[in-house]
Amino acid sequence: MRVHRRGREPSNDKLAPKAVVGRVSLYLRQLEVFQRQGQATVSSNQLGAALGLNDAQVRKDLAFFGQFGCPGIGYRIDELTPVLRRILGIDRTWRLALIGLGNLGRALLQYRGFRDQGFRFVALLDNDPRKTGKVYDGLPVQSIDDLASAVVTLDIRMALISVPAEAAQAVADRVVACGIQGILNFAPVALNLPPQVQIVDVDLSIHLEHLAYKVQNAHLSGNEPSAEVG
Amino acid sequence: MRVHRRGREPSNDKLAPKAVVGRVSLYLRQLEVFQRQGQATVSSNQLGAALGLNDAQVRKDLAFFGQFGCPGIGYRIDELTPVLRRILGIDRTWRLALIGLGNLGRALLQYRGFRDQGFRFVALLDNDPRKTGKVYDGLPVQSIDDLASAVVTLDIRMALISVPAEAAQAVADRVVACGIQGILNFAPVALNLPPQVQIVDVDLSIHLEHLAYKVQNAHLSGNEPSAEVG
DNA sequence: TAGATTGTTAATCGATTAACAATC
DNA sequence: TAGATTGTTAATCGATTAACAATC
Fold first, then answer.
1. For residues B4 and B1, what is the distance between their CA atoms, to the nearest angstrom?
2. For residue A136, which phi and psi values (nearest 5 degrees)?
3. What's the whole-number mean pLDDT along residues A165-183?
4. HSE-up of B221 (CA within 13 Å, CB side)?
5. pLDDT tens-digit profile of B134-161?
6. Torsion angle of the four alpha carbons B149, B153, B155, B161, in this order, in degrees rounded to the nearest 10
7. Mutate to test the interface with A, among B111, B157, B210 (most CBs of A within 10 A)
């Protein structure tokens, strides 16, 4: 008599909070760890413990997107994994442009974590004439002037920007003009973009500065550094 | 009659929230932009606008650490800049170990943003025998077995970990055993550490996944992608 | 002085956690 | 059935924003 209930999506009418989406990525990764260990199901308590999170938070995060668990059992890993991939939008291949082939850019090009999640770089762009024409990972570096045609030809929807801070806004303007929908920005500058273009900033210095802050103030965190080391 | 008041530090008895510390880094960076433009003072409104933040939030963040502004005037840039640097703990040089010299590790070694903020790599470590002995940026790559002595000799307090996920926990254990106080972790895995060791995780895949989520769900964000492009 | 802007309190908003009936 | 664990409501906690007296 009961209608098939699992997988209902109660809340697909609003964007999940940033924090929730970040944790969904963590859940997905941890789920794969449990799966490799041969587990078939996982409880919110177990998943949370592995990531240092509260069990209620795990359930609430997942409940934002639908009902995926079984009371008394937990979550079936082989069911939940593809659901989370679909939620994040990584149940398919994303074709990316990489703009800026300095040290960081080339490292991003090779970064295994991107490839494993279905992200593919299909165009490399750099305005330094010493770089254009070079081939990295089988792809030629093109001038940024070629961006517009690459976007159309190669069906590119997102771009990674790893150019110096001074160049980033100008590059972003061109990216926007090409109709690219999302930017992952590694330049340490606040980019000005129209609201329809999505942006995520990754600022490496901020993270290291935060670490310096925490180390310097470790005595305030209730975690006394051991008085005697060694 | 009034006691010198500016620079009082009302709240140096608890750790600032993560979000506040992150914004302090942004303020510092933006302050330097304004300074280069020749400005002497900046208001919370101006600073916030440049970063997409509310003016009250700017004032409240700064007030967490003390009273640094002048009513009617704003904040004097040349006074506030060193204060923020001291708050973040970057008013001095930090000596770092870099563990893992793959593509990402080598990019981090060269990353200008770290150098500019007074971070210095003084030891490079990698367990791949094809890498040990090589010299990057004037520093020889050593075996991880040499970590303990390097930490003591070179006065290293923080380490960047850019090794594959599978190796990260073992590396972290050795780092902890050496008495290092903080870890910037680029491996996509939740590390298990004693509470006195500070950690900041940087997970590049999570950021790109978040961007994919936002692009896929742009229609929910109230920022309709333009119906017609071109 | 009048205008601008701070620091801070109170109000609002959002996120996390606790608790528990429903249910496998 | 008894035990485990979900989804969800209510309670708590924390962060953001509004408002304004103090003051440069």
1. 9
2. -120, 130
3. 97
4. 20
5. 999 999 999 999 999 999 999 999 999 9
6. -30
7. B210
